[in-house]
Amino acid sequence: MPGYADERTEPPTPRRRQESRRRGQVARSQDLTAAVPLLAGFVALAFTGHALFASLVAAIRRACDGANNETNALWPVEGAIWLEVGKPMGVFLAVVMGALVVTLLSQVGFLFTFEPLRPSLNKINPINGLQRLFSTRAMMIGVIGVGKMLVVGALAYTLLWGYADEILHALILGFPDVFLHSSSVVFRFSVALAAALVILALIDLSWQRYRHFRDLHMTKEEVKDELRSMEGDPRIKRRRREAQMQLYMQRLRREVPKADVVVTNPTHYAVAIAYDSQSMPAPRVVAKGGDWMALRIRLLAQEYGIPVVERPPLARALYDSVDVGEYIPERLYRAIAEILAFVYELTGRDPLRKRGATAA
């Protein structure tokens, strides 16, 4: 839709970032993945180059000596090369592979997904391909690529110009000296160029992360839709709460009339208590509530003529420690017994007779 990208003003939520990572859409620089192992290879070559060259020369000499005494010289040549070159070459390859693994993990962490390999019609749609080819992003990538080439070319020219005197001096040297001298120049030139590529790749990584973060931006409507999907539709939640409240009110209307007394805070908490000495081992909480629910319990108590007694500390203790349907703990027996005794005296009820029973 027109202007859709401009509407993405909200930063990505953690869920959107997680979904993007699950699909394999992460910010990483291919230049950094290539430049760091390249630089690590040159550094490793600085420490293992002499041993590698010496072992290669020794392997060739041993193979040539063995070839003079053997009819089939294939195995001696291969065996000598593997024995002599294997150790320094193994160190060199281990450093390069280690640098590659560390570079990948530092960019995206441990990530294993097959989502990028999943077939998609959008990937082979020629119209989408043309749109991506001539998009602003493609033009930006092209400009950045040309800029990288210019920077690398200028740096290479500067380095070679700095080595011009050494290159001209090599014209008067013998072959062995020319070989060693040129190897030194090429090595220093390559290390400097690889270091420059790493710096450019770090800049590219910053750009890739910024672009990836911008691509994950969301519209206000997308944020609202995600909240609805995570927490549920507010209308459904409201209807669910209303249904639960209706059931709870029906339970209050059913249980509060069974109470002998309602203990209140007086306004914040209300606890309805019932006791029948012939069927209950102890007084039991039949209903409780806070704030407006407490008000509803008090109104029902007044409607059914149940005494309401204000005992703030006791009401708070009952509300916090006793659930509906549970019996009163022993530590509160004395306080509840005093209240029930007061209620029985006030109402003239015999505590040994069941509720609702009449005198013979």
In short:
The protein is mainly alpha-helical and 360 residues long. It contains 13 helices and 4 strands.
Describe this structure in words.
The protein has 360 residues and is mainly alpha-helical. The chain folds into 2 domains: 5-118 and 163-228, no CATH class; 252-347, 3-Layer(aba) Sandwich (name from scop), CATH 3.40.1690.10. It is 66% helix and 6% strand. It has 13 helices and 4 strands. A 4-stranded mixed beta sheet has the order 3-2-1-4, with helices on both faces. α2 runs antiparallel to α8 (175-215) and α6 (136-162) packs antiparallel against α8. It starts with 13 loop residues before the first helix and ends in a 13-residue tail after the last helix. Residues 1-5 have low confidence and may be disordered.
Provide keyphrases for this structure.
2 domains, mainly alpha, 4 strands, 360 residues, 4-stranded mixed sheet, name from scop
How do the strands and helices of this protein lay out in sequence?
Blueprint: H1 14-22, H2 30-67, H3 74-108, H4 121-124, H5 126-133, H6 136-162, H7 164-169, H8 175-215, H9 220-231, H10 234-255, E1 261-264, E2 269-274, E3 284-290, H11 292-303, E4 308-310, H12 312-321, H13 333-347
Parallel strand pairs: 1-4
Antiparallel strand pairs: 1-2, 2-3
